[in-house]
Specification:
Helix content is 55%, strand content 12%. It is an alpha+beta fold. Among the domains are: 40-77; 166-289, Serine Threonine Protein Phosphatase 5, Tetratricopeptide repeat (Alpha Horseshoe); 299-404, Sandwich (Immunoglobulin-like). The radius of gyration is 47 Å and the shape is rod-shaped. The chain starts with a helix and ends with a strand. 21% of the residues are buried. This is C-type cytochrome biogenesis protein CcmI.
């Protein structure tokens, strides 16, 4: 607002100078003096011409012509007129009214047709950004009214205009866009946050979530790539798995959707109120798959590590499911990044080794888990491993890695 008043004063001073300078620099009227000088010059030129004509014998009555010329010069001189009084104007008599008129007109027009009230409200909203942000991030953040959400969006856009490198601000604006189902705003804001912090997991998740709402196939494919990267992290956010399940269900990849919902159930536990909702989602996907596929046909394996185990941080985990007789050939297997322990992984028919023999064909099973240090499945020297007891299909499996080859 200070800038507005400074600019107003500068413009008013400039406008006033345009009015008063002509009065200050006004020149007196010199028309009569100029006419006298012109007549004198004409008289002298005509005398010179008469002299030449007389010398050439063209004029006989030179004196008469000179007398006529003098009479003409006298006739052109105006008679005595009352002396005109000086019309000099006091500059202050022009300056003060000019300033008053400019002030009244300028600010009157701005008050009538300008946006003074809107500017004032905008500044109040901008100053209230910290409070609105705290209210949004608090547990009761969903209680923000529509007006407060609009104010928060306006304040954020103002801040980001002056601080375009604020990735947190872009992330927050993107989340507001998601809450309002404003796909264009959410994708644009999340994209800018991702460009500023491409390695930030929260930003990456928000960007993927926004891209999931896009109707563009390339945007959705980019979202899947981002989610796949997040699934490889040591700690996997529940929202990542939820988005993976949602995407799989939308693409009618029902086995994958069921797998991810089972992972979510393992992450939240049966005491969570969302557990039953996930179970209903699993049943719905199973119905979509047909009668030949039973819901819940996955193997959840909880892996822990004994205290004496020394782990290479670059190692990976190989989980294999075997028949109850312990045969070396696994029915299903999967490789995972090391991550943190204890952790739970879920295998299903998608991890089966052979099409003819699926994981869901087993009635009983056992699970082996190995920490692979060299990336070669065929070599085991120095690798740590563990195996479970024989369990019925559908029961939870626990494996502790405590032995070394």
């Amino acid at each position: 607002m200070t800038l507005f008043w400074v600019a107003s004063v500068v413009l008013l001073v400039f406008s006033t100078l345009l009015v008063i300078l002509p009065a200050i620099n006004r020149k007196k009227n010199q028309d009569e003096a100029l006419r006298d000088e012109l007549n004198k010059a004409f008289y002298k030129d005509r005398l010179a011409e008469l002299e030449e004509e007389t010398d050439e014998g063209l004029v006989d009555n030179q004196n008469e012509l000179i007398a006529d010329l003098k009479q003409s010069l006298l006739d052109d001189i105006p008679g005595d007129a009352p002396e005109q009084k000086s019309q000099d104007i006091n500059p202050w008599a022009v300056f003060v009214p000019s300033v008053v008129v400019l002030l009244v007109i300028s600010f009157g027009v701005y008050y009538k047709f300008g946006a003074a009230q809107q500017v004032k409200e905008w500044q109040e909203v901008t100053a209230n950004l910290p409070e609105l942000s705290r209210k949004l991030m608090a547990p009761e953040g969903a209680q923000l009214t529509d007006d407060e959400m609009r104010d928060l969006t306006l304040a954020l856009r103002t801040r980001l205009h002056y601080q375009p490198d604020d990735s947190t601000g872009w992330l927050l604006l993107g989340r507001i866009g998601l809450a309002n189902r404003d796909v264009e705003t959410s994708i644009g804001a999340m994209k800018k946050a991702f460009r500023l912090e491409p390695d930030n997991d929260d930003v990456k998740l928000g960007y993927a979530q926004a891209l999931m709402l896009s109707q563009d196939d390339m945007d959705q494919e980019t979202a899947r790539v981002l989610l796949a990267e997040l699934m490889q992290q040591e700690y996997v956010d529940l929202r990542v798995v939820s988005l993976m399940a949602f995407d799989a269900f939308e693409r009618q990849d029902f086995p994958s959707a069921i797998k991810y919902w089972r992972i979510m159930q393992q992450m939240i536990g049966p005491d969570d109120h969302r557990y039953e909702m996930l179970e209903r989602s699993i049943e719905s996907a199973a119905i979509q798959m047909g009668d030949n596929v039973a819901p819940g046909r996955t193997v959840a394996v909880t892996i822990s590590v004994a205290e004496n185990v020394q782990i290479d941080p670059n190692a990976q985990i190989i989980v294999s499911v075997h028949p109850a007789d312990g045969s070396a050939m696994p029915v299903a297997a999967a490789r995972y990044p090391l991550g943190a322990f204890p952790r739970t992984v879920v295998l299903d028919d998608g991890n089966s080794m052979m099409e003819a023999r699926k994981l869901t064909d087993l009635e009983q099973l056992m699970v082996r888990v190995r920490i692979d240090t060299d990336g070669n499945v065929g070599t085991r020297d120095g690798d740590w491993f563990g195996e479970s007891q024989v369990v019925d299909f559908g029961e939870p499996v626990e494996v502790e890695i405590s032995q070394q080859y």
